Amino acid sequence: RTTMKSLRFISAEAFVSNAELARKSLGAVAHDLFPLLFKASYLLEQGEVIHDLVENWPLFDFNIGKLLGATVDYQEDLTHRTCSVCLESCLTGLRDYVLNRSSPCLKKLRVVDLTGIKDVEVQFCKCKKTMGRWARTQLLSKLCSELLVYLQQAECNPGTFGISINVLIDLFVTERNYELVVQALLKKCSCPLKICCVAFRSDNLTLQKFFYIIKLTDPSLLRKLEIVHNVHLEMEHLEILFNSIHFPLLMSLTLPARTFNVRRFTATDEEMLTNIGEKMGEMTQLTELSMSFSILTGRIQKLLSPLKTPLKMLDVSNCSLNHADMAFLANSFHANHLEALDLSGHDIPELYPSTFFKLLSHCSSVLRSLTLEDCNIQDTQVNMLILGLSPCQKLQEFKFIGNPLSSQALKHLFTFLCELPMLKNVEFPVPRDCYPIGITYPIDDASLCRFDHQKYESVAEELNLILLQANREDVKASTPLFGSYDAAVQETNNELGAYLIKSFKETLEKFTTSFNKMS
Hints:
single chain; alpha/beta; 13-stranded parallel β-sheet; 20 helices; globular; LRR_dom_sf
């Protein structure tokens, strides 16, 4: 698909394509043309031009989401291009904006917003090298620290110390970049580039380090908090976090696996859960909540009823919900507002079919994303599922991997899915008849890839043909066996792998020691 470009944009491309000439001529360029030239340079990956544009930015704000998004001159949205060349040039240009010896009174820039970048699986930039969220966090922190060292050592223009630019960014902190980010946050007051954390993700961190850095981020500005892999946050730690820190603007909260486990609850734990629910109720902006792989049987009401704002996104996958939990969700005021819902890992047909369909009917007018992986949905339930999904006319994404459905049932379901006008992404299971007879669900990791690949390819072709014949080439259908793409995990998988090996080794050593003592 070719996107139309205006004559202004074509001229801008021609201008920046000769990097040497463009850089020499920037001083003569009208200020209101800088945004146009920035997008053209980004499209053509002209790193040197990007650097100089940012270094000489003449406007009050620099919002990368708006600059790269759809514009009148060029409708193509480039915010999903996390091109390493372009982003590095952008950030080093920002550092050099501060160091540039031009008169401080000419420096109008006050706010830089880097939050509009989207990390996606497929990159279209020529260099094919991406700069993900972790790397952006790393580079900005490094540049802030370097800037301070330089300002202390060099003879700078006195006006440089008067420069104050708020840099809005989504921070991603792991053990590997922790020290660097901490140093940048500690020296925020004396650095002209002031890191303002809008969203914070933490992986592979000890609790002590997590609690320390979260306080440094200025939680009063935080809109999104993700505590994900290998941060051993349990319920008592969450209560301490909410009692000691206020998150007035928090809109989205993701908690790590096993934060809650009601199977070993005491009376004190029940009080703790009530307190956590009340604290979340004080977060009046909270509309997105993810707490997968916790055991929450019978406690959803206690946790969610204090919320004063309806949830738009809820992920309670693999949370061992019972009928009372599902009944609460179906009848709660959240149901009419849910745009994204993940109920994976629950045996929906067996445990609460009618309550689930009641919940689905309540959120059908707004639902955009539905995930029902490993829910034991079988061929006999497909017609019922179609009936439940029919009113969901705004559905854009449907994921149902891991369900024991035959190729015939999948074809029937795909014929219906073609009728959902907004649908863009479908993740479907390997058909049951592609696996050996007698396979049991949920399928364990060892057996996951032991299916007839040739037969699967043939069925996948037929399913895509159904989409093609219905003129639905816009729908992407796939079977990601080991889960959907996660940009953050992809970027830090080496560190994550090393951490898991270390944990396994430590566990093995403890076991050996215990065994030797017994012997």
